[in-house]
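[[Per-residue structure]]
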Amino acid sequence: MFRTKRSALVRRLWRSRAPGGEDEEEGAGGGGGELRGEGATDGRAHGAGGGGGGGGGGGAGRAGCCLGKAARGAKGHHHPRPAAAGAGGAGGAEADLKALTHSVLKKLKERQLELLLQAVESRGGTRTACLLLPGRLDCRLGPGAPAGSQPAQPPSAYSLPLLLCKVFRWPDLRHSSEVKRLCCCESYGKINPELVCCNPHHLSRLCELESPPPPYSRYPMDFLKPTDSQLLLEPGDRSHWCVVAYWEEKTRVGRLYCVQEPSLDIFYDLPQGNGFCLGQLNSDNKSQLVQKVRSKIGCGIQLTREVDGVWVYNRSSYPIFIKSATLDNPDSRTLLVHKVFPGFSIKAFDYEKAYSLRRPNDHEFTQQPWTGFTVQISFVKGWGQCYTRQFISSCPCWLEVIFNSR
């Protein structure tokens, strides 16, 4: 009975793996294809030209985000998943992956399998414990070779956390530098621990920006105007490190939310949620579009203050769009709107960059109130030149995050 239950857990886990093939990922999440206004994006994604209305539910395995290296590698490199695994080529690779995954899962204890299954089936919506396994164990994935001969390609070595992320979240994942561990994880910040967390939902896909950005997606600096949320802040109040305001189009909904803990979940509907619940706010907006977008916020985002700055992790099933002064070139007079796909993290705010930008370079900088300590985040819908919405105040549901100058 014991072995039967373990075998059933292994089968359920394999059935819950991420949709394979980068061809499927290109079409999921409303991201692939040509640039055609709302709901479309080009291969460079995440700049102000990404698809605002997409999302399409999937997205957890998306391989791209704004101007990131993953996005560039995802375009034009499709590896279709064949109908019959094991038929050679990509099918043989999937068969190898299945064999390797089963060999790893069968070594786990029943309780560990149950924990992993809970994390995978909840898609990270439920807080799950760390899955601690030996950190020095590597898994080798690649074609075998007959005795006395060399394989056509050397096998790829994956750490256990990377292998489980590849199987259950991002099939195109290749290197540990592409992921970032969440601060809620026991292994966060540890270097070469004896036991490492292998929970795939305790990691996020890293959004790595490139420079310089394309000129078509630039956004004038003077479009960042101070809102009443900023004007209501007490300059001397330093009991919190940031304040969050939730907006529906041009109307702020609810009170300002002061953040004191290092991590904050902002969500609409989250099992065992603890943080800023947008679903509990009283909104008088009857717009069907606002209500539709509100229902898609789901698990929302996670906002964390870390050593190197403030990170935003997209926990929802749809893209989010971010504008921050510290995400752009310091010498630029324009800002980008960055598209962040589900499962991705981006360093949305950098204190050191913000301080360096705060020093006025010329007369033009002194004409406008400084808004460099503010980040704007829109759920599902983007804004800018490639959208019908030119300003974030036209977006159905969005956040304004105002940081204290620590």
In short: The chain has nine helices and 19 strands. The first strand starts at residue 132 and ends at 134. The longest helix spans residues 90-105.
